[in-house]
Specification:
The chain is mainly alpha-helical. Helix content is 68%, strand content 4%.
């Protein structure tokens, strides 16, 4: 099949979000970085490095044969599973508070859970389209459930409930669009319900977080503090915002102002107009991703494009929902904008693959 140009609108939207992220990361982290590291450019410089690597990988993915991603799906999943196990080994894994989610190489650390998300999309896209699911479906699914169960178990032990939710969403999405009967999907999720319930409410701090989501003013100095500060940032920004760099929430009021809650900082500095523009950029990205998936030349590429679109879209919409108080607080970054090298690189690789698939669509516009 003759290739066409990659989807220009998707590329421009991605670059727009990355540029917004670079600007906001400096704006929201400069004072904190100066206080903690004595260098106001600390996070900004590192994010520039991450962005350069991510952009290079995005354009590299445009030239990789699409069958390559199918061939590496199983080794990639096993590799990501091993990385998830390594975070629990003292001296290799790094912990922040009660969370053990990072591995460190030199001056940089990365989060294996982000790598595992893309590996899961590769793997599910492959097994859904390459196997006959018309009979003995539970026997065929069991080995895959065991592998995926180990990954979910590692995420639960970190603990990283946000990533577990993303994983479950991706599994449901890909199995559903892949053509497996809905009754099997529903049965699987009913069986997993006790595990999901334990993750959500099994620990006291999780129950407290849920109660804070329902009424943060019951505990404004503790469990409700972060979401209340997020509300104040949105209120302070108004329609047009206080102005770039003029936000007050980043002055040690709003925790995670340059990571998980950067959307609240964006709303404060750029106002409702800025927040709506970024939200619409994500909506457009999801729309284009779905169009590319529907016009993909093979069932495998349809599933792959759908999974990548879901990976980015679900996380973006969940982050915005958390920051605006529509969902309980979870440790999820805003794709392309939050500080975090692993998430940025993986999402840019995903966009590179989507653009590659769009090159193989006969009528993508």
């Amino acid at each position: 099949m003759k290739k066409v140009q990659p989807h220009f609108g998707l590329l421009v939207t991605t670059l727009f979000l990355v540029i917004v992220g670079i600007i906001l990361i400096y704006s929201t982290s400069a004072i904190y970085a100066q206080e903690r590291f004595g260098d106001s450019y600390y996070f900004f410089k590192r994010h520039l490095v991450y962005s350069s690597v991510a952009l290079t990988l995005l354009f590299t993915c445009l030239w990789i044969p699409l069958d390559f991603f199918k061939k590496i799906s199983f080794p990639f999943l096993i590799f990501s599973m091993l990385l998830l196990i390594l975070v629990f080994i003292p001296g290799i894994g790094q912990s922040v508070g009660i969370a053990s989610r990072w591995l460190k190489i030199g001056a940089f650390r990365f989060q294996p859970a982000e790598i595992a998300k893309l590996a899961l999309v590769f793997y599910l896209s492959y097994i859904i389209t390459e196997k006959d699911w018309s009979q003995k479906i539970f026997q065929k699914l069991m080995p895959h459930f065991i592998i995926i169960g180990i990954i979910l178990g590692c995420l639960a032990l970190q603990p990283d409930f946000g990533s577990v939710v993303i994983f479950c969403g991706l599994i449901f999405l890909l199995v559903f669009v892949g053509g497996i009967k809905f009754v099997y999907v529903l049965t699987s999720f009913i069986a997993a319900a006790p595990f999901i319930y334990f993750l959500a409410l099994g620990k006291a701090y999780r129950r407290k977080r849920l109660l804070a989501f329902l009424n943060p003013w019951n505990d404004p100095q503790n469990s409700g503090y972060q979401i209340i500060q997020s509300y104040l940032a949105f209120f302070s920004g108004g329609f047009l915002g206080r102005g770039l760099g003029e936000g007050r929430s980043k002055l040690f009021y709003l925790p995670e102002a340059h990571t998980d809650f950067i959307y609240a900082s964006l709303a404060e500095e750029l106002g409702f107009i800025g927040a709506l523009t970024v939200l619409l950029a994500f909506v457009y990205m999801i729309y284009v991703g779905i169009r590319i998936a529907l016009r993909a030349p093979t069932h495998y590429l349809f599933c792959l494009a759908t999974g990548i679109t879901g990976m980015i879209g679900i996380e973006a919409l969940m982050n915005i929902a958390v920051v605006t108080g529509l969902l309980p607080t979870k440790g999820l970054p805003l794709p392309f904008i939050s500080y975090g090298g692993t998430a940025l690189i993986i999402n840019m690789v995903g966009i590179g693959i989507l653009l590659n698939i769009s090159q193989n669509c006969e009528a993508q516009r």
